[in-house]
Amino acid sequence: MTSEKLEELYDKYKDHVYRLAFAYCKNKADAEDIMQEVFIKCFSLDVDTVNESMIKSWLFKVIVNKCRDMFRSLFKSCEYL
Q1: What is the pLDDT of residues 17-41, one digit of tens each?
Q2: What is the pLDDT of residue 45?
Q3: Which residue among 10, 19, 39, 72 has the highest number of C-beta atoms inside a 10 angstrom radius?
Q4: Nearest in space to 59 (alpha carbons), one of 40, 46, 42
Q5: What is the Cα–Cα distance from 70 to 10, expressed in whole angstroms?
Q6: Containing structural domain, residue 43
Q7: How would you class 6 by CB atoms within 10 Å of its CB: exposed for 0-12, middle for 13-18, buried for 19 or more?
Q8: What secondary structure does DSSP assign to 16-75, as a single string?
Q9: How many domains does the chain have?
Q10: CA atoms within 13 A on the CB side of 73
Q11: How far apart are the C-alpha atoms of 51 and 30, rounded to whole Å?
Q12: What CATH number is given to the structural domain containing 52?
């Protein structure tokens, strides 16, 4: 994937990704971390082969999974206290 396509993808979806991550975790720093992880994952995959209409739903699925992973790790660390 070209850097122009990656930049276009980021500019198009960054606000959506951040808002959904923030809606889940209710914390600005966590939402920014999740946003960063989502786009790193997106940039590491070959998204050229994916239909444009499927990218948004794929991003949202990744956001939800990253938020759930974060919550699982928080609850797991609380078990040992």
Answers
A1: 999 999 999 999 999 999 999 998 8
A2: 76
A3: 39
A4: 42
A5: 22
A6: 3-79
A7: middle
A8: HHHHHHHHHH--HHHHHHHHHHHHHHHHHS-GGGS-HHHHHHHHHHHHHHHHHHHHHHHH
A9: 1
A10: 7
A11: 29
A12: 1.10.1740.10
